[in-house]
Design a protein that fits this description.
The complex is a heterodimer of chains A (146) and B (127). With 146 residues, chain A is an alpha+beta fold. Helix content of chain A is 23%, strand content 36%. Chain B is 13% helix and 53% strand. In chain B, β2 and β3 form a beta hairpin. The longest helix of chain B has 17 residues. Chain B is elongated and about 70 Å long. The chains are: A alpha+beta (146), B mainly beta (127).
């Protein structure tokens, strides 16, 4: 009886743990490093969550319709080391995001750099893409839309 | 002892999802369109609604050109949400119903509006 209860307890623990880590994955499994994205839009939501924070951005497409895009960033800890706080991007902020596209073709990307359009403030988004070099990217122009 | 352990794990397991339940059904960032009866072109609208101590407040099109909502009320019996604001195009009055309240990504706010002399309907979704 005790061993059954122990197995049940371990099973429950395993289920809970797997739920916590389900969102954690390698960059290459979900994003295509060869499919760059450069988008401008309005922040409509920020999820400051582990293991990845997310920016949700509303983008006007060529037909004049609005699409919601989700951009994955690094962990909140990693972002804080880059100068972010959970309130850095307020709802309604116009931003330009450079990143890479999701492999599944959904409206999702992995953010490398986020620029606040109003003041041209650039921030690195803590991407886990190994090929992305923050030091060399820091030398680029501020306004990514040019 | 093991029964207590199972109970503890269960409580912790349920507590994490429960942290996402942030209360008021109108609270959050909303996006959608105003569809005027006199124009074929929809007008984009975004709402940011906050709830604090039972009181609602908010902003229309938050950001540099955001407009403070002067009055926002929810009738919890009918889930009717009423919003008023003074915009450059005249007084905006929106009245509609919240639906799909169990959803965090597809909650709807639909109804009718007037803005100055313009009338129409709106369809807005929680982001």
């Amino acid at each position: 009886m005790k061993s059954k209860l122990l197995a049940l307890a371990l099973g429950a623990l395993g289920t809970i743990t797997s739920l916590q880590v389900a969102a954690h994955h390698s960059f290459a499994a979900e994003f295509d490093g060869n499919s760059p994205l450069l988008m401008q839009g309005t922040v409509v939501k920020v999820d400051w969550t582990n293991p990845h924070a997310y920016i949700f951005m509303e983008v006007e497409n060529e037909e004049g319709d609005y699409e919601e895009w989700a951009f994955e960033m690094g962990s909140p800890n990693g972002l804080q080391r880059r100068g972010w706080t959970r309130n850095t991007l307020e709802i309604g902020t116009e931003v330009i995001i450079r990143g890479t596209r999701a492999r599944d073709g959904s409206q999702k990307g992995n953010a490398q750099v986020v620029v606040i359009a109003e003041n041209c403030q650039r921030m690195f988004a803590g991407t886990s893409q190994r090929e992305f070099d923050e030091e060399s990217a820091a030398q680029e122009e501020c306004d990514l839309s040019r | 002892m093991l029964a207590r352990l199972i109970l503890l794990i269960s409580v912790i397991g349920f507590a994490f999802p429960a942290t996402a339940q942030t209360g008021h059904p109108a609270k959050g960032s909303w996006s959608g369109n105003l569809m005027s009866f006199s124009s074929a072109e929809p007008e984009r609208i975004r709402l940011l609604i906050d709830a604090w101590d039972g009181e609602l407040s908010g902003t229309i099109n938050p950001g540099r050109r955001g407009i403070e909502i002067s009055n926002v009320e929810l009738d919890a019996e009918s889930w009717t949400l009423t919003i008023e604001a003074d915009t450059p195009d005249g007084k905006l009055m929106m009245e509609g119903n919240l639906s799909n309240l169990g959803s965090w990504t597809n909650r709807k706010y639909r109804g009718a509006y007037t803005m100055g002399n313009t009338k129409g309907t709106f369809d807005i979704t929680l982001n």
